[in-house]
Automatic annotation (TrEMBL):
<keyword id="KW-0732">Signal</keyword>
<dbReference type="InterPro" id="IPR050902">
    <property type="entry name" value="ABC_Transporter_SBP"/>
</dbReference>
<comment type="similarity">
    <text>Belongs to the bacterial solute-binding protein 8 family.</text>
</comment>
<feature type="domain" description="Fe/B12 periplasmic-binding">
    <location>
        <begin position="53"/>
        <end position="335"/>
    </location>
</feature>
<protein>
    <submittedName>
        <fullName>ABC transporter substrate-binding protein</fullName>
    </submittedName>
</protein>
<dbReference type="Pfam" id="PF01497">
    <property type="entry name" value="Peripla_BP_2"/>
</dbReference>
<dbReference type="InterPro" id="IPR002491">
    <property type="entry name" value="ABC_transptr_periplasmic_BD"/>
</dbReference>
<feature type="signal peptide">
    <location>
        <begin position="1"/>
        <end position="18"/>
    </location>
</feature>
Length: 335
């Protein structure tokens, strides 16, 4: 389980949503007379009623609920204990109201103890065959679930993930949750604000051969763990004005060899900041690792850190695009 180490300021584009002090659309759908069907991971799933005690796993998934103003529908969340300074998070009220259930990934026991009636998690974001915590296992005990779209398995291998572009995954989940909980207007407003913020960044982004090549470094010394085309960094890098050097990987998060990094010679390395190894420690390793000494990003010390929650599917993705975009513009101007 990765750990969140820092938070971001309230975004201007989300000033009209809860957490920034505005009125919110009611999340009540108790008067709904019909079931709701959405498409999740390529299959239609029907929910007979509005969940009242949702349990979530991990920070990005939890903040999707908060961004939609659905903390009143939550029984609790599981995430690491190092959640960082949450004082300026736009949806701080959600953290104040929802119960923190566990610093470890969810289990069936967590859900049952919380009297949960719905689980929102993802493959490798709580769900896993190895731990027996799966949508099918929950279904057997009468608890419906929803799978984070970024994490949907794509069938290319037993574990490879990703069925659509990362931002489309974010918008899909906001739309589906909006429909399920009766907050369609709120979901549409969030999506429109995110798209505008991203469009503003793209309008200033480097173009053509001026676009810096970027490698996402998550962790690992023998083998780096990185992002393929289906994880959030792909579009965070792309919309910010760079090119993900691992775009050809048909997966979300996966390990590669250092040789592939050397061959692609990135101009910038983006560090995923989380866990017991700090961003500064990761940067020190990269700058001192002998095989990387001739890589452009290392020669020019172009290393930029974003937090874990910025780099997984979450409502913080647009802010991450804006911050990385400003950095990549400076890089492009210096080249």
């Amino acid at each position: 389980m990765r750990k969140l180490l820092a938070a971001v300021l309230c975004l201007a584009t989300t000033a009209a949503v809860s957490g920034c002090g505005a009125d919110v659309e009611s999340s009540s759908r108790d008067d709904r007379s019909s079931a709701v069907t959405v498409t999740n991971c390529g299959r239609e799933v029907t929910y007979d009623k509005v969940p009242e005690r949702v349990v979530t796993n991990d920070v990005g998934i939890t903040e999707l609920m908060f961004a939609l103003g659905l903390e009143d529908r939550m029984a609790g969340f599981a995430m690491p204990d190092e959640k960082g300074d949450l004082s300026d998070v736009p949806w701080k009220d959600g953290y104040d109201k929802a119960k923190w259930l566990s610093k470890d990934p969810l289990t069936k026991e967590n859900v049952l103890d919380a009297k949960g009636d719905f689980v929102f998690a993802g493959w490798n974001y709580g769900f896993g065959d190895d731990n027996g915590f799966t949508p099918d296992a929950l279904k057997k005990i009468g608890i419906p679930s929803y799978v984070l779209t970024e994490s949907c398995r794509n069938g290319r291998t037993k574990t490879s993930r990703g069925i659509m572009s990362p931002l489309d995954a974010l918008y899909t989940d906001l739309t589906n949750l909006g429909k399920l909980f009766g907050v369609e207007k709120r979901a549409a407003t969030l999506i429109a604000g995110f798209k505008k913020q991203i469009a503003d960044v793209r309008a200033q982004a480097p173009a053509g051969t001026d676009r810096p090549k970027v490698f996402l470094y998550d962790s690992g010394q023998d083998q780096p763990f990185t992002s393929g085309r289906y994880a959030a960094p792909e579009e965070i890098i792309n919309k910010a004005g760079g090119t993900n050097v691992m775009h050809d990987l048909d997966d979300s998060w996966t390990a590669v060899g250092w040789e592939s990094v050397l061959d692609r010679d990135p101009d910038v390395i983006v560090i995923c900041n989380y866990g017991d190894v700090t961003a500064e420690q990761k940067k020190k390793f990269l700058l001192s690792y002998p095989p990387l000494k001739n890589v452009s990003a290392i020669k020019h010390k172009r290393v930029f850190a974003l937090d874990y929650v910025d780099l997984v599917e979450s409502p913080r993705n647009p802010s991450a695009i804006a911050r990385l975009g400003a950095y990549l513009r400076r890089v492009a101007e210096s080249q």
